[in-house]
Q: What sequence folds into this?
């Protein structure tokens, strides 16, 4: 039997570069800020970083609108800063993975600019999805697709004579035109991009919208949908022609062919597909190495919902014969402390769920700030930056609230994040007790809990692929991992007795050896 590959049990730290640490005092985090805090990441014990996009971008969607896929934006310190980070991270045995955005480019990408200039029917326009409009004057969009960010998925451009011209497709913002993956130039260019970064020492990619890219040839209308909520990203219906088209698998196979030339690198796909058989297709041996499974993100804090999410994720992974993956939050969803009710209750639940997640077999993704127990932030209208806010006609506030910069030290904003008082999103009052400085010496802090849990996880030789469910009262959850570790969660409202066994870690106090609500514990048996 071959040894498991590093990614199959790694703890990935998702790092939102704008919000981690600012080294040059412009109020926006950057890559030298990351390098300066590698000791922090090392003491947290993570195996790898996933950097949200750092490529050259006008930053309409904060880097998910890429204007040059083979260069680092000066805002983040340029290519030299990435090289410094990769080298310094390697020295402390942390791998660096990057975000890759193959579904669309920025409208500032030279290809899109050329497409605008070249006009209908040109090879330049064939790199994107340009179509004539419907209706007598072509005034109506070519189909009824909606953008994930709100509004129509089509924008009309001007013809050379200044009159209204063709429409182009964008499943996200109008500044993110979708690429036409039927055009072989697109795959050839992506191969260049993959090799470019892998040759620089990048250990793999998180692939954005990995269930997108391929479009049905005739771009058929989608079924009418009820108004989408701000968690629209989390929905995916099997009959939605915008996503999960069969052609996407050939694209993943091409990507895998390149990755196979770099055997220590891995891909993890953002796959918002909830049918397990469909999801598993992305993880066939010649496609992605890992696929994000978002069931824990969607689970309420009840024993039933959490168990169902875990069972389902394990079943999907088993079907795919691929390591399971776990994530409680990311840069697109409300932070779990707030999802679970905010305040002391939200925090206790989030800490308990962290122990559940870190007990499980497979790869784990920790979103920066999760280890500090940060809540979502209610931001005033005038600072909102997520394109969702504008595109939804100010009905959806968007994702800025989970992207506020990390607090490092001190009692007032910007809490050591930046030398600038004005950070790209304002940091709230009252975060003094949540700073890294305040938490790192407190053994009861959320940061200490994550450090200890990750340390114990690293020491576990066998994580395996499965868990054994143990019988419990209805509001409890208990599973035993392949190495014997038992994780117990009290998702109910009364304090319960602990079973026999040695408690090696608990997410909160266990007064009198009993377990209060919203607490989890790890137990071992000699
Ligand atoms: C993914 C990213 C999200 C981004 C979108 C468009 O869902 O996670 O942040 O806005 O793709 O690229």
A:
């Amino acid at each position: 039997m071959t040894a498991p590959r590093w990614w199959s049990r790694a703890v990935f730290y998702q790092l939102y570069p704008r919000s981690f640490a600012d080294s040059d005092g412009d109020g926006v985090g950057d890559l030298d800020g990351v390098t300066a805090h590698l000791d922090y990441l090392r003491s947290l014990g993570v195996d790898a970083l996933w950097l949200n996009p750092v490529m050259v971008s006008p930053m309409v969607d904060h880097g998910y609108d890429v204007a040059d896929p083979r260069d680092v934006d000066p805002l983040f310190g340029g290519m030299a800063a990435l090289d410094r980070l990769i080298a310094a991270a390697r020295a402390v045995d942390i791998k660096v993975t990057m975000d890759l955005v193959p579904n669309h480019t920025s409208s500032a990408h030279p290809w899109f600019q050329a497409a605008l200039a070249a006009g209908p029917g040109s090879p330049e326009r064939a790199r994107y999805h340009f179509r004539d409009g419907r209706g007598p004057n072509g005034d109506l969009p070519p189909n009824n697709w909606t953008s994930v960010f709100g509004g129509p998925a089509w924008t009309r451009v001007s013809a050379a004579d200044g009159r209204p011209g063709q429409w182009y497709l964008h499943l996200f913002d109008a500044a993110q035109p979708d690429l036409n993956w039927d055009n072989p130039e697109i795959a050839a260019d992506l191969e260049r991009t993959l090799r470019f970064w892998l040759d620089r020492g990048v250990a793999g990619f998180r692939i954005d919208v990995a269930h997108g890219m391929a479009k049905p040839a005739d771009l058929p209308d989608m079924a009418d949908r009820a108004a989408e909520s701000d968690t629209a990203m989390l929905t995916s219906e099997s009959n939605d022609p915008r996503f999960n088209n069969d052609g996407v698998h050939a694209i993943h196979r091409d990507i895998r062919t390149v990755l196979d030339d770099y055997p220590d690198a891995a891909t993890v796909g953002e796959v918002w597909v909830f049918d397990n058989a469909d999801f598993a297709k992305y993880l066939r041996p010649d496609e992605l190495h890992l696929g994000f499974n978002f069931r824990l993100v969607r689970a309420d804090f009840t024993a039933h919902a959490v168990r169902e999410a875990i069972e389902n994720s394990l079943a999907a992974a088993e079907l795919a014969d691929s390591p399971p993956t776990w994530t409680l939050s990311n840069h697109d969803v409300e932070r779990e402390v707030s999802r679970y009710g905010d305040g002391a209750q939200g925090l206790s639940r989030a800490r308990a769920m962290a122990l559940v997640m870190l007990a499980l077999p497979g790869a784990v993704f920790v979103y920066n700030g999760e280890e500090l127990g940060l809540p979502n932030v209610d931001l005033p209208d005038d600072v909102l930056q997520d394109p969702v806010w504008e595109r939804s006609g100010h009905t959806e506030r968007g994702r800025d609230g989970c992207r506020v910069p990390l607090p490092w030290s001190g009692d007032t904003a910007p809490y050591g994040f930046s030398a600038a008082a004005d950070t790209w999103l304002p940091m709230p009052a009252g975060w003094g007790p949540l700073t890294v400085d305040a938490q790192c010496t407190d053994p009861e802090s959320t940061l200490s809990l994550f450090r200890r849990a990750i340390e114990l996880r690293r020491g576990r030789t066998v994580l395996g692929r499965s868990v054994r469910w143990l019988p419990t009262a209805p509001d409890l959850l208990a599973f035993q991992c392949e190495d014997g570790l038992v994780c117990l969660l009290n998702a109910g409202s009364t304090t319960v007795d602990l079973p026999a066994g040695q408690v090696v870690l608990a997410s909160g106090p266990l007064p009198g050896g009993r377990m209060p609500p919203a607490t989890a514990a790890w137990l071992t048996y000699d």
User: Anything to note?
Assistant: Residues 303-320 form the longest helix (18 residues). The first strand starts at residue 11 and ends at 15.
